[in-house]
Structure formats: structure tokens, C-alpha cells
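Continuing the batch. This is chain 6 of the set; chains 1 through 5 are on the previous pages. Same settings as before, nothing changed between runs. Recording input and output for traceability.
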Amino acid sequence: MSRFVKFFSIAAALVMLALPSVANAAVVAKIDISSQRMNVFIDGELAYSWSISSGRKGFNTPRGSYRPTALRRMHYSRKYDNSPMPHSIFFRGGFAIHGTGYVKQLGRPASHGCIRLHPSNAAKLFSIVKTYGAGNTRIVIQN
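Output for chain 6:
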């Protein structure tokens, strides 16, 4: 193998490692706003599918692809009357995936923009992200 081919192969491999993509994330939480569902993939395999609540009318849930920025076992919203946000996975500013006590509202838009989960599902996702690491996790929010 020529030095050029070897160099090109190594350079291409380094570029692929440096690019953040869904393909190389060990954990991918795909959130479909239109169906109010989250599908969690681990190593490319569907592991969980859960009902969620996203932002209700007037409170938009941001769309896009994100990495978790912070994990908090218990967080209280300073913006919304110290509301409890158990097992919070923050992904954009104050937006997070977290557990909720309003489980009867799951399956329809009801939040101020966060992604709400049943408390046991939020705890499970939190544990998965802690195990695999935020750098190996991708959150994808789409319609």
C-alpha cells in the first residue's frame, strides 16, 4: 500500500471519528412530535418505545439533533414554580427530557417545551445515558 493511500485511509478514519452523527452514537433517542413517541435505540437496535408529552400550544419544543449537555437526578424548574423534573437530561439550554407526575397527559402535547416521560421511563433513559455517556448519546427531535 502506498504512503498516499495509507495517509488518505488514516485521514478519512479520523474525520469520521470527529464528525458527530447519529450513526456513531451508541444511544439514540428519536422523538417524533407528531406521534408523541420516543424510540430509544441502543447500538442500532430498538430497545424502548415510550409515550411522551412535548410542548403544548404556545410552547415550542425545539427540533434538531442534540447531545446531552447535563444530567441531573433531580432538578427543580426555577422558571415554572419550582416544578420537579426528575431524571433530567438537558439538551438545549433549559430544555430537557425528564420524568413527570402528569402521566395522564402523556401521548399529547402538554409541556412548556420539554419532553416529558413516565417517571420510570425517565429513570431508565437517565441510567442508559449515564452508562453509555453523553458523548455517545444523540437526541433527535423531529415531526
